[in-house]
Write a structure and sequence with these properties.
alpha/beta; Putative metal-dependent hydrolase YjjV; QatD; 8-stranded parallel β-sheet; TIM Barrel; TatD-like; globular; single chain
Length: 256
């Protein structure tokens, strides 16, 4: 199995973050530890200090934008302390036009602040995929990952054409819609995530060390060998880290 990575894990929100950190270090899974508001980032950074495989991400979750949009100044001040940005984006499960407008303003400012600074963004797009893809645009100066994508496949196709990546998790493998999305992702754009502790794997919250099962599940779904899926995902992650253009692998829907 190729080396694993987790592009979206809420390490600070597990009941015992220390146990998750130790297990992740032992497993050697390179993990992006997202945060939900800027004021939490310093604690997360301290928690991960000296760790080989975990890195903190600076976030401002769209569902918290109404309460925490005043922390955009803090977001700007902290941005140089990390290469990773997340969790950010839009969540239009709310029907309140004012809240949607505020989310757009916050996400737009995040995109402006991160542009051209070598950042890697993991982006939430629940019921807002079209707006997210339009706001990121076709030539955003940064690397963008659509986390747990669940929107229209046509919008996904446009996102892929714009160079975005998509991360997959255990929950996606368990749903028909998630499987449809996975089948639509080119192997050269697929990344891994847990979204732990909110997603479960087996009897407990998913952890980075569980991602080998996601690789195997994707391989079974696509009719491929797990080693091929794992190597492709690892190569994609390395491209992100080295700021290289994404590979154009084409959609893989079955064995070659």
């Amino acid at each position: 199995m190729a080396r694993l990575h987790d592009t979206h894990c809420h390490v600070d929100l597990y009941p015992d973050p220390g146990e998750v950190i130790a297990a992740t270090e032992l497993a050697g899974v390179y993990t992006v530890a997202v945060t939900n508001v800027p004021s939490v980032f310093p604690r997360c950074k301290e928690l991960l200090s000296g760790r080989r495989f975990l890195r903190p991400a600076l976030g401002l979750h769209p569902e918290l934008a109404r309460e925490y949009h005043t922390e955009l100044g803090l977001f700007a001040a902290l941005l140089e302390e990390t290469r990773y940005v997340g969790e950010v984006g839009l969540d239009f499960t709310t029907r309140d036009p004012a809240e949607r407008r505020l989310q757009r303003e916050v996400f737009g400012r995040v995109l402006e602040l991160a542009a051209g600074r070598g950042k890697i963004l993991t982006v939430h797009s629940r019921r807002a995929a079209q707006d997210v893809v339009e706001m990121v645009g076709p030539a955003y100066p940064g690397r963008v990952i659509l986390h747990w994508y669940s929107g229209p496949l046509g919008v996904l196709e446009r996102a892929l054409a714009n160079g975005l990546y998509v991360s997959v998790n255990p929950a996606m493998l368990r749903s028909q819609r998630g499987q449809e999305v996975i089948r639509s992702i080119p192997l050269g754009r697929m990344l891994l995530e847990t979204d732990g502790p909110f997603v479960r794997s087996g009897a407990g919250p998913a952890q980075p060390r569980d991602l080998a099962a996601v690789v195997e599940g994707v391989a079974d779904l696509l009719g491929l060998e797990a080693i091929r899926v794992g190597r492709a995902a690892h190569a994609n992650f390395r491209q992100l880290l080295h700021d290289e253009p994404p590979a154009d692998a084409g959609c893989v829907s079955g064995p070659e």
